[in-house]
Amino acid sequence: xxxxxxxxxxxxxxxxxxxxxxxxxxxxxxxxxxxxxxxxxxxxxxxxxxxxxxxxxxxxxxxxxxxxxxxxxxxxxxxxxxxxxxxxxxxxxxxxxxxx
Length: 100
Prior knowledge:
The protein contains three helices and no strands. By secondary structure, the protein is mainly α. It has a domain of 50 residues.
């Protein structure tokens, strides 16, 4: 009887802790938009450097380029579209220039 009581008590405590885990209570905050954007630019710069270097063997730089492209696709999926908070787009915010 005592073992049955301890087993039921253990199940109750597991059931209480489950909603906190299901709600992602311990999940870290969302990643920084600018940090992810800079990581994408760094990977694209690495790809450009590797493709432009004729001294490196294709067998050496091929897997690195493939991995960097996969990282770019993963980061862009994480990044998502840019969320603008302004009322007008950045390109149209200044007055038009008139040349005589």
